[in-house]
Amino acid sequence: MIDLFFLDQSGFAPTLPTGFTWGRRGRRVVVPYEAPQGRRVNVVGAFAPYDPSGPRLVFETRRTAEGRSDAAAHLAFVRRVAGLGEDPTTAPARARPCIVVLDNYSVHHAATVKQAEPALADVGVTFCYLPPYSPELNRIEPVWRQVK
Q1: pLDDT by residue (tens digit) across 104-129?
Q2: Structure pTM?
Q3: Buried b / exposed e along 26-60 (16+ C-beta atoms within 10 A)
Q4: Any idea which fold 3-8+37-147 has?
């Protein structure tokens, strides 16, 4: 048995409301304008479709004001998903190997991530990169489609 996670990022932003709507005859309905600036929410998620207890989704949100989703944030999320602490060198080896499937987002190939791969592999966490332009192979993509 292995733990298999499909990891991906997605962004959510509210759309502008329509400027019109249906209302009762003789009553004017006013739709208030609500600006979307500063309300975008970025989400990183890991989907485990073959978990023994049933499919599960682990996710973390990041608002624009909280900073970019960089390599350090990516590694922290991977460690959280894999059940490791902040430092993988002090974490005990996992009982089952963990494979994290990643797309070709630049953060996934950053130098910081490449340097951390051997330490993660020592505790049982490895990365598997999907071929370029193949979102159909990432099992979390349909989950994001349903959420949006």
Answers
A1: 999 999 999 999 999 999 999 999 99
A2: 0.81
A3: eeeeeeeeeeeeeeeebbbbbbbeeeeeeeebebb
A4: Nucleotidyltransferase; domain 5 (3.30.420)
